[in-house]
Amino acid sequence: MPVAAAAPLPTKRRQASEARRRAILDAAFEIFIAEGFKAARLDDIAKRAGVAKGTLYLFSRDKEDLFELVALDMVAPVLERLTLLAQQTDLPFAALLTGMFSLFEREVLATKRREIFRLIIAEGARFPTIAKFYHREVISRGLALIGGAAGRAHARGEISSDALARYPQLLFGPLLISVVWRSLFEPYQPLDISGMLAAHRDMLLGPAAAKAREP
Amino acid sequence: MPVAAAAPLPTKRRQASEARRRAILDAAFEIFIAEGFKAARLDDIAKRAGVAKGTLYLFSRDKEDLFELVALDMVAPVLERLTLLAQQTDLPFAALLTGMFSLFEREVLATKRREIFRLIIAEGARFPTIAKFYHREVISRGLALIGGAAGRAHARGEISSDALARYPQLLFGPLLISVVWRSLFEPYQPLDISGMLAAHRDMLLGPAAAKAREP
DNA sequence: ATATATTGACTGACCAGCCAGTCAATAATT
DNA sequence: AATTATTGACTGGCTGGTCAGTCAATATAT
């Protein structure tokens, strides 16, 4: 009995097609980031992807559809990691924070992926589909993860306040700040983002925990 | 010698012109907010302002110039208030926070002005002029105000941590969050913004101050 | 040889900016 | 005070360029 008979083996064509798909998504991401939705030109995306304009229409219905594909494609890896983190329900709260911040710094802030949030904020109002998707798949998951963990940590006495359990959004403020700062204000006033995130972490954990950081 | 010969008194013409200027700026704000820079049509702006398209060019050099005028015009009143707050250097820190948050809730979050930040984030990367202006006139002032006050409060023992003095950006995270939430995610998950800001304030002041809130 | 994937010139809608013309408000003249 | 001349703010139809989307022709794989 063949192991994977259902899925047809990749032929030369399929492989080439998949490569083109990636090239197109990457190119589209770059151009959308640089120009915004309306100002982005499909000619430029095609050129950058090394493909004719018509080819774009083999992968997406129209410009809007392409935009959604890009926005959705780019969070996939982060989503995966976030899910893994969420499964570790009995992690000490301090460790969870550290893990999350470091995931953020490595996988979002240090990569071009950091621009996604800017893009969502910029275009989200005009793309309810995207806003809704991001809320459902990323935002609400992140909030639930933090809110739940903070609640448990508060019950165990790890943290003194229940503010984070009630308003998990408070945790994400500085993350948003750091993304925006990088893109807009860094040139005029540099910001030690790692330092800021560490300070934020200490503040969330409360004074006691902050002292414990350096034994 | 005539007292004010240099400045010609406002005639009917000048008054009408000033009224049109306001109408144009307001209309442009609405359209830019709703559509973004590139997608906004000057025809629509003119129509909404009750003015012919050509008239727009009496007040601005081109579309880009108009955008800058709008972005700059809309913060003016907030800037003024912020300056007033900054002059009260010996306010207790808790009072400063309360004042600032309430200014934010009343003058930004509750008005259409709240959309400015979204606009800046959306278009700022393509309008260095705007990003620079906002950094110089709003961001850096707000940060200096908070950073300085937090440093003094820490020295006086009002707050236990010096994190806010070092990273005043931490204060603005939740403000940014609240603006974005309103515009993008409110429909899918309501958020008690006042509650969140109060919790944030307590967290910044530390546990002792939080208890003192209700005597 | 057939089927499928890719191309890129072309079309038509769209829109920023232009500019020749209009007319109410003011100034000059009688 | 009444009449005429001048100004310049305002108008809106037009133009030239731009660009999303199409499709007949071509290239490539099976």
Shape of chain A: elongated
Label the structural class of chain A.
mainly alpha
Please state the oligomeric state of the protein chains shown.
homodimer
Distance between termini of chain A?
A: 60 Å
Q: Name the biggest interface.
A: A-B, 51 and 51 residues
Determine the fraction of residues in helical runs of chain A and give it as a percent range: over 70%
How many individual helices of chain A?
10
Radius of gyration of chain A, whole Å: 21 Å
Say how many strands of chain A there are. 0
Low-confidence stretches of chain A: 1-9
Elements of chain A, N to C (H/E)? HHHHHHHHHH
Q: What percentage of the residues of chain A does DSSP assign to strands (E)?
A: under 5%
Mean pLDDT across all residues of chain A, rounded? 88
**Major sheet of chain A: size, sense and barrel closure?**
none
Number of domains of chain A: 2
Care to describe what's here?
2 copies of one chain form a homodimer. Chain A is mainly alpha-helical and 215 residues long. Chain A has 2 domains: 47 residues, Homeodomain-like (Arc Repressor Mutant, subunit A); 151 residues. Chain A is built from 10 helices and no strands. In chain A, α2 crosses α3, α4 packs parallel to α7 and α6 crosses α9. The N terminus of chain A is likely disordered. Chains A and B meet through α6, α7, α9 and α10 of A and α6, α7, α9 and α10 of B. The structure holds a DNA duplex (30 and 30 nucleotides).
